[in-house]
Amino acid sequence: MLFLCAMVGLAGFVDAAAGGGGLIALPAYMAVGLPMHYVYGCNKLSSAVGTTFSTARFFKNGALELKVGLAAAAVSFLGSALASQVVLLLPDASLKLILLVMLPVAAGIILTRRDLTGPDRPALRDGAGKWWKAAAIGFFIGGYDGLIGPGTGTFAILAFCVLMGYDLRSASGNAKLLNLASNYASVITMVTAGKVLYAVALPAAVFGIIGHLLGSGMALKKGVKFIRPMMLCVLVLLLADMVAELFA
């Protein structure tokens, strides 16, 4: 149990700054022998609780535009619901191949786009157009979450930064709100289905809260110098995981 709690805490730290905490938390829950449905249920609960605290911290520090984040979060439900239907029609290998194409592209954007390391660019979200952009981000990120899942937060940060001109710090804050809505929607489903072991999920959630608070604190303090390399690490881990599964 101590191993699990430590890993969930580490996952919270990574997730709060750059997304992708599930890459650490899910294998940890699996390692203690939980059935897969309970793995997902416990992970969603601990992740949702931790994300609540990191989202609140970003908001408190002015690194989250509430209306934009809420708009994206609301539309993400639709994208996720539609993608969940599509995923039933696609073979598992096809989904992994899609991700294998997307990951190097995302890494290339992080490495080559100088605007990712620059200041906030509000001109990219002037007028009513910003609501369409927020809705598009919510729809496609929600769709990605429903279709594939891992690394959703990382891609959300990239989208807010590239498409709407937020600096990485604020993009990370907006992405947290989008993830928060998605997490709690999943929690409701898992709790209703009886797929959460509270004796496991709640202690892990405490460590997840600690990780999220530490990770969000570092992201807010260090900004792009911390968030950018963390995002690259998440993408490398995700790529390695997908390659290993494809050739296992």
From TrEMBL:
<keyword id="KW-1003">Cell membrane</keyword>
<dbReference type="GO" id="GO:0005886">
    <property type="term" value="C:plasma membrane"/>
</dbReference>
<keyword id="KW-1133">Transmembrane helix</keyword>
<protein>
    <recommendedName>
        <fullName>Probable membrane transporter protein</fullName>
    </recommendedName>
</protein>
<dbReference type="Pfam" id="PF01925">
    <property type="entry name" value="TauE"/>
</dbReference>
<dbReference type="InterPro" id="IPR052017">
    <property type="entry name" value="TSUP"/>
</dbReference>
<feature type="transmembrane region" description="Helical">
    <location>
        <begin position="64"/>
        <end position="87"/>
    </location>
</feature>
<feature type="transmembrane region" description="Helical">
    <location>
        <begin position="226"/>
        <end position="247"/>
    </location>
</feature>
<feature type="transmembrane region" description="Helical">
    <location>
        <begin position="134"/>
        <end position="166"/>
    </location>
</feature>
<keyword id="KW-0812">Transmembrane</keyword>
<dbReference type="InterPro" id="IPR002781">
    <property type="entry name" value="TM_pro_TauE-like"/>
</dbReference>
<keyword id="KW-0472">Membrane</keyword>
<feature type="transmembrane region" description="Helical">
    <location>
        <begin position="93"/>
        <end position="113"/>
    </location>
</feature>
<keyword id="KW-0813">Transport</keyword>
<feature type="transmembrane region" description="Helical">
    <location>
        <begin position="186"/>
        <end position="214"/>
    </location>
</feature>
<comment type="similarity">
    <text>Belongs to the 4-toluene sulfonate uptake permease (TSUP) (TC 2.A.102) family.</text>
</comment>
